[in-house]
Amino acid sequence: MIVEQLSLVDFRNYAVADVTLGPGPNLFVGRNGQGKTNLAEAIAFFATLGSHRVSADAPMVRDGADAAIVRARLAHGERRVLLEAQVNRQGSNKARVNGSPVKTAELPRYAQVVLFAPEDLQIVRGDPSARRRFADQLLIQRAPRMSGVLADYDRVLKQRTALLKSARARGVRGDALSTLDVWDDKLVDLGTQVIRARLALADDLAAALAAAYSAIAGADHAPEAEWVLTVGGVDAEDDDETLTTRDAAAADIASLFRVALADKRTAELDRGITLVGPHRDDLRLRVRGLPVKGYASHGESWSVALALRLASAQLLRAESQLGDPVLILDDVFAELDADRRARLAGLVGDFEQVIVTAAVEADVPGDLRARVVRVEAGRIQEPGDE
C-alpha cells in the first residue's frame, strides 16, 4: 500500500496543506514544532482512528475550527482509493470512501499503517494503559470489526461503573443491586472477545518480535510479551501472581470472568469502579527473563519498543490483502546510535513505502533520503519547488 497524496484542512497547525508522496523512502525534514509529526499523525489516523500522541480527537483540530478534514489517495497495486475523515472537535467523526459516506470504523479496511515515535518508549516504560492501547490499535488493523467491539466494551464499562458509583453513594451492598447482573453479562461477552483477540495477537507476534529485536540490538535477549489477566482473580496492576497468557490458552475465559466479577463485587461496590476485565489487564514485556520496565537499559528499552512496531508491520504484511503497511518512523533516528540507525534502515528498506520525519537530515541514513520534503511552520516544500 502506498499513500500517493495527502490533503489537510484545519488539521493541527495546517490551515490547508497538500503533499505528494512516492513509493519507497519519503523524508520530512524541518525544525521541531514545524508540523512534521502532524503529517505522520494524519496518515496514521486512517488506520488506527486515533492519534499516537493524544487520546482525544479535539487537539487534532486547528485552533478556532470546529472540524479538521484529512484526505488521502491510496494505491493498492493498480487500484486507487480516496479516503476522507472529518475529525470533529465535538461529536462523532465522519468518513467517506471514494466520495460515499461510510462508518468511520470502516476506514482501517483500506489503510494499514505502522507508526513508531519517541512516545512509544511509554509502551515499555509507562503504565499498562500504554500497552493496552498499542495492542488494541493493532487489533483494529488486523480485524477492523474489533473497533466496534472495543467501543461497545468501553460503553458498557462506563455504564456499569456509573451504576457502581451510584450504588456506592446510596449505600447499596451485595446482591441488593440486581441490575448489575445485566451489565455483567454484556461486560463478559464483549470483554471475552477482547481478551481472546489480545491473546492471539501476543502469540502471533512472538516470533516476529524475537527476530526484530535481535536484528535491531544485535543480540538475542529472548524478548517476551505475555498478557497478565485480571480474570485470574487479582489485579494485574498490583499483583504479579495472576493468570497469564500461557495459563489462559486452555482456559474458559468467560467462566473465569464471571467468577472474578462475583468475587470482586463487594470490593467494586466499596470503591465504585469495575475491577475486572481487559481494561485493567497488562502486557508484560521481558528481556533476558526480566521485566523491561525497571530492569532494561535505555538501549534495550528502545530496542523492545522498535521491535514491537516492526513485528506489527511484519504481521500485517503477512496477513494483508492490501500489500505492505505504510511504515512511519517519526523522529526516531535522533534517539539511536549509529549502529542502530544502520540496522533499522536495513530492516525497513524493502517496505513499499517508508515515511521518515527528522529535524536534522544527516541523522537519517542515506538509503532513506531518496525523496526529501521540507516542512516549515505549516508550509510544505516538495522536491522541485522553488
TrEMBL record:
Keywords, in A-Z order: ATP-binding, Cytoplasm, DNA damage, DNA repair, DNA replication, DNA-binding, Nucleotide-binding, SOS response
Binding site for ATP: 30-37
A Pfam family annotated for this UniProt entry: SMC_N
Keyword Transport: no
RecF/RecN/SMC N-terminal domain: residues covered: 3-359
UniProt keyword Zinc present: no
Job description of the protein: The RecF protein is involved in DNA metabolism; it is required for DNA replication and normal SOS inducibility. RecF binds preferentially to single-stranded, linear DNA. It also seems to bind ATP.
Protein name: DNA replication and repair protein RecF
Organism name: Microbacterium terricola
Phylogenetic placement of the source organism: Bacteria, Bacillati, Actinomycetota, Actinomycetes, Micrococcales
